[in-house]
């Protein structure tokens, strides 16, 4: 194709797409915030684009190594940990990294019977999936009536087969695990390891640190909390930070500084190996680096305003028919919240999916729905610090309007969306073996 | 800086309105659920401590990036998982349009048709290139894609053994090993004829004896040779009940019999060679595809986009077979992968369309031709390529005593990056960005420092 | 406003705009072609963005001066002229430059009674406007029955009061003035000067040169023929090239090369002065420079395919009811053409404007309408070399569809557009003194 | 390169189909109306003669641009019509989105509402900044805007004389002179007190005697001084029946009484100071506005966007009062201007929104503060600013014997660009991009070469 044809083809595609640059993308636990263009510009500059990874290996690209070193240092300070690797190319890769560190740690100790990973029922699906990839059995820990880890159940589950616990805090309900020091103590008393899922760090960054709560491993998503773009599903960028006693297990190369101020790459002695072919996603690191510089110690503002925004939204929907806020209504949610549309579904037949599609019709991206699994007709929403007052107010109004329609003319919502480039798609046809079509080539052989 | 430019509500007036609506007096009250003893009591020592404004950020970043002299693409000859390839500016522009760059994974299909179509086209273009029916929407990189292909094989064939070609990049071996460690699975290496790079009786013997779940075949070899015996190898692999996992650099395929046609069950590749920037090694693009087989499909990791129709019968696209994935299937998922590399997949599809069929072929021929010249340049300086009798594509590996020291000397003296250093060998590559003069310079630099 | 709010505001604005990146913009005489992104990238790079004009004045920015010098040389070769200035910031500025050169030339010769500028009736409006700005009276030269300059009328108009003739060739009808050497001879015999309006150079570039036709002055639009973007109405970039005897009159600074290969800026001895505060629009020059490098001597392909595309379009509409091709039907049009929808208007009441609005409804930008003035219900269309076969076919189909509707249900077309973000706008209200509103501040004082 | 990537139909197959539809056999037949004797018989010697492909183009361009070492923005102190100002990357991104970049002048309003709204906002923001009711959608630059303002005055007041401040940039004087030459009009300069930069009795006398159609007043002066007597001058101008044309650097306005409030009939400015790149001096943005007066409005050059309603009564925007313009009014048009500087107008509006009211004020204060430091740096080195007793904003002019030679020496030795050189004087400027250290460096450089 000629250049102009390609440009038009993809320009049209972008016009049928929707990102943070178009409006709120308030997906819970996904932390879709503004991706600063100043960073985009450096990422795309030839200064960075033309750096072959061997320049890092030769250690001639001292400036890049220094940038990575600084970032490691800052992430340590933010998380309260002692060492970091920047190799994981995404959050889930960071989870796997944590899981394998746990595995190797116990193997090195000869503690080989520890094959269970404890995971709360409100956890992201990637936690049990990562646990499985590390060869662990996932043991589900139920939530208590406050939506928090059930301490009794936790105590009952912990044994000498327990390798670790994977936890996000604030949890996916937006609730802070206030007994967190007790939780980590229970694990530590049993010599098990606690892994922090960084998906929700945005709600507490600069306010509290996983390291201070007793976590041993922390994985971060540079493309969530630290403003790297999500790119419609990647590339992301991860980081894993650990307490001193796990430092030697980190994968990849750690950037270190010698006595002459020269930066060099260090392979750790008990390293789990590599989780990526190179040193990590440098573009994501650049975003994180610029993001941190832009805030400095004011970084608490990120948690402050993301939490403010989400609680403001909750207040706007307080008392609206058909919606409930499961678990302690009075407790502020940290940066995200889960509402239940169960009553609405029961009373009108309109599901939370119908509401989501109606939001699309009004030019807004929908929140995460049907997750976490412990809430029926879950509507999991997170407004980051980069969302505006006006949009949050409008968003709440559209939700209220949807509910009004649900109670007056429910079939209208079943039709949604009508303003998008296609209407509701046939998932059965898409997934059925007889009609499946994952490429133009499929079925032609 | 009192108000932060990236926080729209960062002003007293709005803050107070919002706090009032919430029904609290002070923003600290939002965080009362955090026990006092674990709240941060100090200011974090990060960044420049005080916030930097945009002008200061630009100044700082310029200092940081300028510390590194620019190396022109054509002065880079380093091989390995990443190599110098040409990135069209028009592609950079298109993937950086905000609607793509700042989008989430397209869960809400109706408002994300453009992104979904772009990914569907990527899947289709790769399927054509590899001659295979199903290619997913992208993995992190070639290494993790190989690792996931290995796990996929094990899920199907159950034997916790994977055989790999000895000429795989070390970086890939390391990643596969890490993933296999999680499954307590083992890695077996098989070898080739030292001169020709072709398979030998021993190669077959090893596979026959070990019966690995999957056999990873590099075609062309990561060390360069285009093995004529690849088809034969795949047939042997099938004979002993293993799955054939073929890793192919997609830039080579327009002039080779594609791995699908050779009978591969699973295909893997690294998309960087189709024109992604090197960016210090990230981000990359893992290509992963399978032949049309129910078992393989049910066990495929990663996102998959499919065609369907909407409520009006109009054609549309959505993510399919999500029941394989972590957010639905949790501990039984085919992988934990969530955020992959959508944007890079789209970039690669754009490049493929820009080149077109003929353009891609010309490009592959140019790489082949340049590799030949590169090999001659090495030979001229008394350096012998491993598998010297083979026809090399893009990469060439060769022994050097101290590649780190010698490489640094070349960089210093000649301002070219001659190879990627490994313990006692090096890998150089020639691509479409090089021309005769560039390779002459390479020859001069190699001769000046390494001549034997 | 916060950055994300600004980004969203303008992202939305772009989505309500339409450029070549979205589809054909076949405005006659406007030459809206693909603007290569490779050039955009250099224009935006800090290499160029941070160059203060004083670096050119100090002559330290030798690379930029060299680029400008090369461009001058290439434009001379393309136009068949002897010297060029790159100072004019747009096409109309180039016209004014030509007009003032003519004025000063005669003034220097003491030939001060020459106060008439001859301009064909098919000319762009900017020609007479520029002529007036130079203090000349515009004398209209009628077209003959072939749509070309009426030689008799021309001869009758030329006198010792004639300063010059402004002409575009091919003319705005897309017809080549085949008597051009006769035309320039008539002027030259009368010691007058002939100015070439470069708006239509795209139709003959690499095939024929204004210099070889006898033109004395040529103005070029780098943002038309040479692929610099139009930017929704600028910045453009112009250039003016002249024959040797007018070189000394050029405005601005001419980049010259000394014996040591060093580039320097030269002010011409009889210069009309400056038509811009600096040395011209460097970004536009970069586009032109890259454009010429990309083609080299293959640049004739630009004329070949733009002309092919437009004649192909004419063929697709041949014999369609309501449309005529005024003037010699059999003569191929060079890169643009003017169709008349007069019959359609008479027979159905549907105007060419209605058809234009219907084109918008179908996702296409409309051609120039109601120009040139010598054709009733003019539909002036130009497909450049960067337009695709498929789009030209589709465009013709939409026009045919519009005509079909005009003859069956004309009122439907009067409603168009209905798919755009606003419907047909009220021009009376917009322009009426009592309702005029050119700013939010207007009427508030 | 057989097929050119920018020509979609450049292939034999399509060419033949299209020729057949047209009814000719060969593409040469398209050009039969061109007489044989003026057809080109040779290949043009342009570019590299043969076409360059994208990779070659990139290589070439890198060589061309790299020949110039990058000068950081903050190392530039040159004043004049263009000065170093900060350009936010986000603005560059937005104006380079294809829908804006590749659009035509919005004749078809219904499909161009975004562009029209962006321009309307520009007009409105500038109207607020200058405190005047009407600002057009942009002129080429400050110089041509001044020239057009002069012609506008002459159209109204009929006397072919324009008076200008002696402290206008030479570049502007030259452009005005060129435009006035077309109208056989004359230029008169008026002067100020040498120490204070304020008007004197002579200034008034000149205007009184000459009765020019328009008087161009620079406020702040192009040479820096913020004249306190500007209001008085405007009153005097009106007293003698002339129009007051006030040229103001928009970056100064947030801390000054705006020219509209001072009674200006016409306001002019150069938009580059609101954050456009310098780019060697192009492209720029001429700001041109008028008070709400029928005569002025009827004679206003350039595009104007206005608000209206559509067929459904919905608010919309379109170009208005086009009867003033060349494509309608031809020889009686108010100007020949066609393509102006839309994209730059939008960029400036974006920057203004990014800064906000407070941000713009802070920025202006910083420029004032930096200018003060710059003046001190000059004084420290024994160099006296012209109008030394005045308060300077941004620009400072001073005498130097041989500014070209001395400037080149400073550039060479100190890697800063200290000023814009004129015949026997120089203009330096300080802006928001500079900080204390930058100005210290300036001082050092000036001291090293120019100290008196």
UniProtKB/TrEMBL annotation, chains A, C:
InterPro entries noted in UniProt: GDC-P_C, GDC-P_N, GDC_P, PyrdxlP-dep_Trfase, PyrdxlP-dep_Trfase_major, PyrdxlP-dep_Trfase_small
Asked if the keyword GTP-binding belongs to this entry, the reply reads no
This protein's superkingdom?
Archaea
Give the UniProt record's GO annotations in the biological process aspect: glycine decarboxylation via glycine cleavage system
Keyword annotations for this protein?
A: Oxidoreductase, Pyridoxal phosphate
**What Pfam families does the record point to?**
GcvP2_C, GDC-P
SUPFAM superfamilies the record matches: PLP-dependent transferases
Listed EC numbers = 1.4.4.2
| GO cellular component entries | cytosol; glycine cleavage complex
The protein's GO terms of the molecular function aspect are:
glycine binding; glycine dehydrogenase (decarboxylating) activity; pyridoxal phosphate binding
Descriptive protein name: glycine dehydrogenase (aminomethyl-transferring)
- Per the UniProt record, the source organism is Fervidicoccus fontis (strain DSM 19380 / JCM 18336 / VKM B-2539 / Kam940)
From TrEMBL, chains B, D:
| Biological process terms in GO annotation | nucleoside metabolic process
Q: Which UniProt keywords apply?
A: Oxidoreductase
InterPro entries xrefs: GcvPA, GDC-P_N, PyrdxlP-dep_Trfase, PyrdxlP-dep_Trfase_major, PyrdxlP-dep_Trfase_small
Q: Which residues form the Glycine cleavage system P-protein N-terminal domain?
A: 7-404
GO molecular function per UniProt: glycine dehydrogenase (decarboxylating) activity
Record keyword Oxidoreductase present:
yes
Q: Which Pfam families match?
A: GDC-P
* Alphabetical list of PANTHER family matching this protein: GLYCINE CLEAVAGE SYSTEM P-PROTEIN, GLYCINE DEHYDROGENASE (DECARBOXYLATING)
Please state what the protein is called.
Answer: Glycine dehydrogenase subunit 1
Q: Which organism is it from?
A: Fervidicoccus fontis (strain DSM 19380 / JCM 18336 / VKM B-2539 / Kam940)
What does UniProt list as this organism's lineage? Answer: Archaea, Thermoproteota, Thermoprotei, Fervidicoccales, Fervidicoccaceae
